[in-house]
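Async update (no meeting this week)

Hi team, since we skipped the sync, here's where things stand on the single-chain job. The sequence we agreed to prioritize is pasted below, unchanged from the tracker. I ran it this morning and attached the output directly underneath so nobody has to dig for it. Comments welcome in thread, and please keep replies under the output.
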Amino acid sequence: MANKKSRILSILRYLETQTDEAHPVSIADIITHLKGLGITASRKTVSADIEQLIDAGVDVVCVAGRRYEYFIGDRHFELPELKLLVDAVQAFKLISPKKSGILIGKLASLTSVYHAEELNRQLYLEKQVKPNNEKIYITIDLLYTAINTGKKVQFKYYEYTRDKKKIYKHDRQVYIFSPYGLIWNNDHYYTAGYSESHGRLITFRVDRIAVPELTDIPAVPRPEGFDMTQYTTSVFRMYDGPVRAVTLKCVNTLMKTIVDRFGEDVDTKPIDDKHFYAHVSVSVSPTFFGWVFSFGGGIEITAPADVSEDYRSQARLAAEKSH
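Output:
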């Protein structure tokens, strides 16, 4: 029985890796392959094994002709799907070049060797920067475990000096954190939750987390009515500043930009033939001000007055520094 199982598994692997619609194999080819593995087989046993694979749900397609030939038909992933996944792996900034190669190799193992050659694609990515941090995958898994089990995590957090050296923030401070969810924004992972050090809800960039540990301490429960989607929209581009209700006066051509940023349910109201108001909740921060400034006057902060004045002050300061 053990020899039979080994033979069937060897046939399955051979069909999976060496066949596709353009490259079927005969029973004689299969027997030759098995012989190379030291496995004895006959036409009768191979035919019976193929029938067992079909009965088990494997899509082994038989091509009738002068001789019967076989190939694997439907697979878990079709070639176009694998190509999309390969492109996604190459484009994902947080996957290092080394890890990208490993993942693409695993994807290639899901199809025939002939189709695998087509997965050796080079997606053009302008000025793409890949990290050398191989531990981010472990950190992401740990955070998901903490979220699913309702536990706190602890870690250190680093930043860069002007010499581009990594240093731990606040003299190697250990942060105690209750994660509520992970957020994907602008090619980076962030985790949102309650920070003991800050005494409030905050976000951390996952690739800057160092020495993470899962604790046995129950996490601080989510605030009543907390909505991760709403929070993600409010924390503008993941920079923590005070969340404020802000009114923006926008030119009509920027409606697509406002919808892309805040969603189709964003509260808007026409002003005149050329402008509309957008009432949004944002994290008021230099990043938000920089975003507004980037539209060259196409967006104006009209309320509240203190946010509008703060924006104008920072714009004046930036103009002075540029001279």
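Quick observations from my side:
The longest helix spans residues 305-322.
DSSP finds eleven helices and 13 strands in the chain.
Reply here if anything looks off.
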